[in-house]
Amino acid sequence: MDTTIFWPSDVSYDGFCYGWILPAVCVAGVLVADSIAQANSVLDHVYLSKHYLSLENLCGRPAILGRCTFRQSMDVRDRDCFPPDIEDCGGSLGRLPNFNSRPYHVIYYRRHEATSMRFYSMDDPWLTTIGRRTLARPPFHESFMEHDFTGTRNVPLTPGKSITLINQWNSAKQLHHLVETSGMKFHLNSTSQSSRISSIGSLLLTFMQSSQCLQRISGVLHSIAVLSMRLGFVSTAVQQLDVRTRNFIRILAASHNIRSQRVSPSQYIEFYNGVWIILNDIIIGVAFRRFLRDNRVLLAEMIVRGLEVVTVGWIQNTLVWLDSWPAGLKLNTELSRFYAYSFIGMMGLWKRLFGLWLPMIPVTIGVVEIASCFGVTMVLSLLSDFLCLLTVHIHLCYVVSSTIYHHVLRLVGSLWNLFRAGKRYNVLRNRTDSWDYDVDQLLLGTILFTLVAHLFPTIMVYYALFALLRLSIIILHASLETILAFMNHFPLFALMLRAKDSQRSPGRISMLNMLGENTDGRVVMVESHPLPFSVIFVQYVELWYRLAEHYHPSRLARYIFIGQLITVIPRDSIHYLSNKSLDNA
Amino acid sequence: MRQTRPLPDTHPEFSFIEWPGFCEYRVENWRLARDGSGRIIRGAVTWTWADPIVPVILSLLWPRVRWGLLTGTLAVVLIAVFVWFRCSQVLHESVLLFPPHGIQFECHRGFPLFSPFFVSRNFIHMSTLEDFVIHEGLRRWDVRYFLAAFKRSVTGELSIKNLLPHFAVLLEVYQGAQRTMFRRDLDTPEG
Lengths: 585, 191
Description:
The complex is a heterodimer of chains A (585) and B (191).
Chain A: E1 3-8, E2 15-20, E3 25-31, H1 36-47, H2 52-59, E4 63-69, E5 85-87, E6 104-109, H3 129-135, H4 139-147, H5 159-181, H6 184-194, H7 199-209, H8 211-230, H9 236-260, H10 265-294, H11 296-322, H12 333-357, H13 361-372, H14 376-390, H15 392-421, E7 423-426, E8 431-434, H16 439-489, H17 492-500, E9 506-515, E10 522-530, H18 533-536, H19 538-550, H20 553-562, H21 572-575, H22 579-584
Helix pairs in contact in A: 2-5, 7-9, 8-9, 9-10, 9-14, 10-13, 10-14, 11-12, 12-16, 13-14, 14-16, 15-16, 16-19
Chain B: E1 2-4, E2 14-19, E3 22-28, E4 30-32, E5 40-42, H1 53-61, H2 69-87, E6 89-98, E7 102-110, E8 118-125, E9 129-139, E10 142-151, E11 157-159, H3 167-180
Antiparallel strand pairs in B: 1-2, 2-3, 3-6, 4-5, 6-7, 7-8, 9-10, 10-11
């Protein structure tokens, strides 16, 4: 089999090529030297460099691979299109491929500067935990492959070998710098270059890495996280505080590795994505705070007028309307009056409580203004909590009416079985069985059925009112929760990076087979593809599935029909979506 | 570069191209008629009878329709969709073998008279490639064979999934991949 040599596309001069031979021959650069001994001595000097050890851990030990020459008659511009002539010159490792006797072909790759943040990557390391779980092979596939005796049983290369090759491509430029500058000068260059990465980010990281400051902040954040996790079931705002605290803790924990640039691509992007999300959240929150301050009086008036009318007045009017034979529908007068007066009484009680809160509206708006300094997500979570508090009376009425409706519906069903054909529901066998009723049982059941059947429309009408109100509130809650989840986990940095420089967010590689400009042959180049949107938004797909599953119209319709309580989606299932992947990273 | 057609009589659209260091199994988007007449049936066409109808319809509608923002936008969108469909026809699909590194699936789309406008490439490294098989599945009312590459930890990737050539073509590709990538000679009894 021909030997494949991965050659850097920006190298087209003669000299001694150096690089790695495992898992594949990968040339990192070309060293201009008079003899093989001189070239080896340069590499020996590199081995002693301070930055070499981490490179060897990632890529393996480099060595002199051979002498390369480009055709003398060739124009410099054409050298990139023609592979070099490599001759074996007896390397020190004794395991070098013999280029003299075995044919070889060249695949080109681009060497990226370490400071450019561009690199190659295969697809597997990029998938988050949720992405892996979503795309994982179903269990029956695993058993199928295991029992398929016709399978090839490809002896797998250890996954590390493919990663090693990728690391070699990504580190080739760094090794080249080490060789060129022979250690000391490169160290100065690297520190000066790393400080140019992000001035704001460096200041932030430097501040965070002040050890005492870091420990105190981490301690405080941990305490807040523990407390808010325990109280998360009480309030959306508390849970949002927990989410933000965890974000901060992760950012602080990752800051050290980010500073030393010893991070995986996913950690790098998740770190900066977290920083961007928090900063954008705070910026939008501050802008919203300004809006609140400028319109405080108007908002207070709108709240006073609007809330009282919508949450109390309108419902009371509707109850009165239902009690007055609505649209000619003759409901049971006594039962309807009982329902209407009971619920109107509850509304009146709530109205009195609401009146006690009215003078505190400016204080409430002030609290929201303060909360907006922590981000617009905090405002949204507070709005969600306020929505819960301001609709407590509707929720209570809904619980009462749905409980009555549910029990009456079951009673109607049970009596219908008796009335229809003398059947009854067998709880032990979970089915409807025939049963011999006594005459008095049949008579009583028939009377009860008639009674319930005539009262059922009245019960259903009042239940329908509060079910619709509850559904409207659920939709509002769902909208707020969805917006909150999107703002907490939006991959803003990943998208911006993909738009600005797609090579900095690689998803996979491919072999680009293109025609050389001045050659009849083909030039094969390793090409990096950016992360597909399906991977960037994989968490949103998961989030969408969970929201759609919980708020599916057919599910909601079924719950309304059978009188089962409709609840909002558990906050744990959407708030901690991406945090699990970061915790596992 | 050396190009051969392993099945010249039945499937001349299928070619095997040997490049230095890798090889390509290419299936072009045309075929011979099944009736044995030798007539070529092209999947990717330059002009059809429907193409002149679009400007005719446009010229008939032009004086009759009150062009506003909505109608203009709708017309532009429809024309853009039509152009898109014509310029994204599958020209050919390929399976490239890069021993011992991996295999790559390519799909070249465009207009037949020009170079491909869109090329999708999917490279599967050998460390993630578990097996390369011929599978069968339902497509509309038919049972069709197709090539599939099983990847470790994820479900898999389909090869030549747009053209879906017949079994004879798939068998050639399958045997070539097994020989080249997995070092498995299927012609011998042990294979």
